[in-house]
Amino acid sequence: MSRKLWWPPTLACALVLVLAACADKSTPATQTAAARTQLPDWTGVWVAADTEIDISGYPTLDSPAGMALDLLNLKSAPWTEAQQKWIETEVPKLMAADAVRRAQGWGFPLMMEGVAPMQFLVTPTETVILNFYRDIRHVYTDGRALPPEEDRWPTPWGDSVGHWEGDTLVFETVSVRNGSVLPLPMPPLSPEARFSERLRRTAPDRMELAMRIEDPAVLTGPWDLKFEYRRAEGIDRLIHDIMENDRSAVEGNSLTIAPPPR
Amino acid sequence: MQRRYLAQALAAFVFAGATGHAVAHHSAAMFDQTKTVELTGTVRLFQWSNPHCYIQLMVKNEQGREEEWSLEMGAPMYLYNRGWRPSTVKPGDQLKVKLNPLRKGGRGGLLVEAKSLDGKPLGKPVSGAP
Asked: Is the confidence metric ipTM above 0.85 for this complex?
């Protein structure tokens, strides 16, 4: 190589090294801000696309599909024979007992039906899914693994980790306690259930969640579900629920409305 | 207003004998959703509160004596989405309402519709899902 041809590549390499060194000096805050611009915009409040709740707290006929909660359609799940028998004998008893039960929140997976308005807060290290009943899921995307099996304990929301595939959040959830938080018959899954989800925005005002539930203890195969959400145009903030004025009083085997303050 | 209930979905999909279920924090079995009662009265109190909002409505009975009704609604979040705010209803307002009465009887029920005396719905009109 002649001297004339030798020095330009050397200069270019030096320039690249200098630029790389400058990049390394950027602060963590700068890196975080840069990473955040790569994440999708899921701002706003979201609700089930096919459900409109009126002032009574119930869906209206304006709701194209009423409030047919897919997760409560227990006949759509591939239950084992033993679990099917358990459902037939025990769920009616649970529902009868629920006549006087009061609770807050939906728990997971029922909260993902989106009947209770919810938000998806996307950060570089985790996505937080929450609704106005203060059900909160943390989906960590910082590369961590699920907790080791010996350190897990079931909760109403489980443990979740995930990663991004383009603008789709792909995540796994384990350690879900099968307790009905609402007076609703939660799908009777076992604590060994594993949930695989893919969450993405499909249009400016639409999001979609595909969920696969695998639970060899009570299911003979995967249970696949899909949920669609729309922006709740009437909601510009979440007003969280709290038992500040619970006037539901037990009277015999049902509830009634307690007298008001004078 | 015609309404559709989760109980119907459950009855169709899950188990016969299922009772109604609230979106909120308790079962709706306490209300008779097959019956609708219409009342006209004056608001004594509006509770914008969780887990439910309530309207205390003073209604004259057939003898002309005032009786107080307790009307349960959804949580503030659901009302907010229908255009209601804490100032939407005030003491002294006169309302026409429809409710599903308590199964046990008594002056109370689940408020399913509220209008001013000239027939205007409170809050923004129901638009339905787009």
From this structure: no
